[in-house]
Amino acid sequence: MFSLKVALSFGTLLPLVHLAAGQAAEWGQCGGIGWAGATTCVSGTVCTVINAYYSQCLPGAVTPAPTSTTPATSAPPGTTSTPTGSAPGGLSSIPASTLFQISNFGSNPNNVGMFVYKPKTVAAKPPLIVASHYCSGTAQAYFTGSRFAQLAETYGYVVLYPNSPHSGTCWDVSSNATLTHDGGSDSLGIASAARYAIANWGVDANRVFAVGTSSGAMMTSVLAGAYPDIFKAGIVDSGVADGCFSLPGQPEDSWNSECSEGELILTGAEWADRVYAAYPGYTGARPKMQVWHGTVDTTLFPQNFFEEVKQWTTVFGYSSTPISNTSESYLPSGYSNATFGPNFQAILAQGVGHTVPLFEQQYLEFLGIA
Ligand SMILES: *[C@@H]1O[C@H](CO)[C@@H](O)[C@H](O)[C@H]1NC(C)=O
Ligand SMILES: *[C@@H]1O[C@H](CO)[C@@H](O)[C@H](O)[C@H]1NC(C)=O
Ligand SMILES: *[C@@H]1O[C@H](CO)[C@@H](O)[C@H](O)[C@H]1NC(C)=O
User: Fold this and answer.
1) How confident is the model at residue 35 (pLDDT cuts 50, 70, 90)?
2) Which ligand is nearest to the CA of 226?
3) For labeling, which of 94, 140, 258, 336 is most exposed (least CB within 10 Å)?
4) What does the record give under GO molecular function (predicted)?
């Protein structure tokens, strides 16, 4: 039931993203199983079959143009859903402008799937965005249902899309292992891929970011708490506070209905302690955070928004009263943007359920990319 709700509400976003014109844009999707959008491409681009689920408008030719001189692997279009089965190597070994699966990127106890999207033109010392999907979603679905990859073509950052290994494809945000720095489970697999990218792809370690929707938003909070040394900012779309789903001793990936229903009410100090406990002894900077939530969310109740506000204002030592709380011209009416300080903004969307639509361009501004 939960998965169904997520799938339906997220699905409503897709027409906004894809149906702007009769022809798909450059880098846009133009076919694949389940695809109902445009099947022709704007002029100068060719609709190219990447795999059974995904065809993409590629500029000019039938094969994506690699950015660097010689790709180490001559991976043709069609490898999207096929594990490479080997270490991913340097960024030049990743084919451009396609969703490409990597493996052997470091400690990954739960075998989290990992996909990378490298734009045609990569910025010097590119930023990295880790984009985590919702329950019932996949890396592929979040890739096609969001504009992170499309905007990477403009701004030159690299995207990692993790893929949940669990039945129902939620993330483990409940076990002690996942909630703890280098403790194991899903979060460690994701952190390992980010570390790999920093060490081997020339990614700017000061511009590594996490974003996610629903379960992926909860994972984003977990990554912010357990891996503040890696992630410099997090954007949480319809999630919960870090540690809210904690159920130590229960199986990994357990559902915490006390939290989801907004009944876990803690003080700011108690919430901050969950962040500190995620990485004992860590004294460095914390990732800046932006959280979004709808007031009629019946999957992760809106009280979770106010618990997130308590958590991050306490962590940053901000007043619980926002400096400003205003509408924004680019957002639908009923959205309020509460700013508590340079490192924390909380956007509440009146009348919006689960989940708040993505505002990728604004996220990039918050992340300092756009
Ligand atoms: C949580 O996990 C960490 C890392 O594995 C471990 O050191 C710690 O003892 C665990 N705490 C509990 C309460 O199980
Ligand atoms: C910002 O203001 C709106 C009303 O305009 C209110 O509903 C919301 O709770 C406020 N946000 C915060 C974080 O206090
Ligand atoms: C919220 O307001 C602050 C301060 O005006 C602004 O810098 C920020 O971009 C706004 N955030 C959103 C999500 O619009």
Assistant:
1) low
2) 1
3) 258
4) carboxylic ester hydrolase activity; cellulose binding
